[in-house]
Amino acid sequence: MKNITKFFTTLPATPIVYLTTINHKRLYLKQDYLNHPVIQGNKLRKLKYNLLAAKQAQQPLISFGGAYSNHIAALAAAGQVFGLATVGIIRGEELAASSRWNQTLRSAHQQGMQLHFVSRKAYRQKQAHPEIQSIIQQYAQALLIPEGGSNSLSVLGSREIMTEIAANPIPFAAVFAAGGTGGTLAGLIDGVAKENLFCRVVGVSVLKGAEDLPLLIRRLSQAHQQVNWQLHSDYHFGGYAKTNAELAAFQRQFEQRFNLPLESIYTAKLSYAVFDLAAKSSPDTAENWLIYHSGGLQGRAVKIGNEA
Ligand SMILES: *Cc1c(COP(=O)(O)O)cnc(C)c1O
Known about the structure:
Blueprint: H1 4-9, E1 16-22, E2 25-31, H2 42-57, E3 61-65, H3 70-82, E4 86-91, H4 103-110, E5 114-118, H5 120-125, H6 130-137, E6 143-145, H7 152-166, E7 174-179, H8 183-194, E8 200-205, H9 212-220, E9 229-232, H10 245-258, H11 267-280, E10 287-293
Parallel strand pairs: 2-10, 3-4, 3-6, 4-5, 7-8, 7-10, 8-9
Antiparallel strand pairs: 1-2
């Protein structure tokens, strides 16, 4: 088991690499997937202060997710690495039979996460549903993390992404990140304010009809009124986890050209959006743009730098 405080204080900043220039937009990418093989990218950022709090109080951690949730995968791995009890409340009672588990659920179970499978109806209502209340009551004084891991502690952790970006020598006019539940974008926005940067935060929603996302970001972020930020909601390619031939071709070409891995749910859509926005931008403005690669590559055979 790792010493959790030491793990976080010795974690190196992840690299920023140059990609290409389009219309005088110099595009860079922050390889945050290099921070951990499984507790990866923004999920490690978001879990950091939740894990430290749970460790200090010896609390079990309970959270929610679907069968493919990166957040559940990260939480289960963090529980094992740092010696914390974890509980996953998973959407879909049909998954109670372990023969139907996918890789995410199998490895979460192997890493000691207690899995509970609930109906879609109960899942939608979360703690308001009696079935879920009775699960939570089985674990005394647990720290409850919302679906996707977005709470105020996760915003504090995500804010540190911007602190790392501020410490690099290249001044960025814009930082682009994928948005699901909005915790990461809220953290980036708060980070811009904290570091006094002249930089806008641009979110790309991976969900169709993400009307809630601006609201979630405003609720989570302290500094949303003083920072220049915006959201693009037209790069979802049909909705969450949906894809098409154009996106798949973009991802393939990107990976070959830059020798960098993307995944199709978040970072391929994000990168597609940034390349498209750069192509449509005015060539009269020269700027440095940064793509925040939030990870999601666990289970893919990529070379990871700082093996924990
Ligand atoms: C979960 C996830 C996101 C979305 O982060 P939010 O804070 O929920 O908006 C983005 N990228 C990857 C790779 C993720 O796993």
